[in-house]
Structure formats: structure tokens, C-alpha cells
Amino acid sequence: MQINFKGTNYELTSEISTHARKKLQSVRKLLGKGTHAAFAYVDLGKETEAHQNGRIWYADINLEVSGKRYYTKATEETLENAVDKAVNELKSEILTVRKREQSLVRKGGGMFKSLMQGFSR
Hints:
Elements: E1 2-8, H1 14-31, E2 39-46, E3 57-65, E4 68-76, H2 79-120
Parallel strand pairs: 1-2
Antiparallel strand pairs: 2-3, 3-4
Helix pairs in contact: 1-2
């Protein structure tokens, strides 16, 4: 997986880049084999320069894998929490899409089976 980082209204540090890279490795496990062609674009930063406290840090993650795109955005009080929340939302989205695809395959298989039973009589 290729990961590109961008900092908005914030100078990226190696600690936060390492933290985000480590968290995104868990997403890589969910995608399975063939993820060498996956691209993750991570934007980390402050909402605006004017704000000093509260939920001012955000993490945007765009993930492109085999023609599919996933996007999450999280806003939190610390940058690490924003990264954690965005990665968790990304995992949830990937699992939802996977379950939906599995149910459609099973549904199609059941329809095919009932169709074939109609021809055998």
C-alpha cells in the first residue's frame, strides 16, 4: 500500500506520520491480498488557524483499491484521536461493503439455483 501524507495548516511530524502509517496497516489486513496497488491519501491538519482549542484537528483519508474508493473524515481534539477515529470509520466502511457484496453473491446464487431447478423438471 502506498501512503501519501499532506499537512494543512500544520507541519507534519514524523511521530504522527508513523502513527497514521501504523494504523493504516490494520486496514491493509482487511483488504486482503492484492493490495499492493492500493493508494491511501491522508490529509492531516487544523480546521483553521484561528481556532486554538476544541475539535480543531482533522484527518481525511481517501483509499483507492482495485477501482473502489473509500473516504472518511474525522474531527477531534487531538490529531492522534482524529487519525484513530478516521481509520476505525474506514474499517467499518470496508466491512460494510464486503458484507453487502457477499449477500449479493449469495442472493444471486440462490436465484440461479432456483432457476436451474425449474429446468430440471
